[in-house]
Specification:
By secondary structure, this protein is an alpha+beta fold. 42% of the residues lie in helices and 23% in strands. The protein has a 3-stranded antiparallel sheet with strand order 1-3-2. The longest helix has 18 residues. The protein is elongated and about 40 Å long.
Length: 78
């Protein structure tokens, strides 16, 4: 029984270490990126630009303006 308790404790300690956020992760912020209205497919442009910035595309805007919401580090978004 004691060996099983130690195994469970070790597994729990490893799980906590894996779940902890990385201290090296860069801070992220949200941006609205406005594209040229004549620039073509907004979705593909958004995906390409987000890939360049190591970011994530949020909502894609195609009616009132052409653009998208981007979550990325401030330096990458520039």
């Amino acid at each position: 029984m004691r060996g099983r308790t130690l195994t469970l404790a070790a597994a729990a300690a490893l799980a906590v270490g894996v779940a902890a956020p990385s201290a090296a992760a860069p801070p992220t912020e949200s941006f609205i990126v406005v594209l040229n209205p004549d620039g073509g497919d907004v979705g593909s442009q958004a995906a390409a630009l987000a890939r360049q910035a190591n970011g994530r595309v949020g909502f894609v805007y195609e009616a009132a303006l052409k653009g998208f919401a981007l979550t990325a580090s401030p330096s990458a978004a520039r």
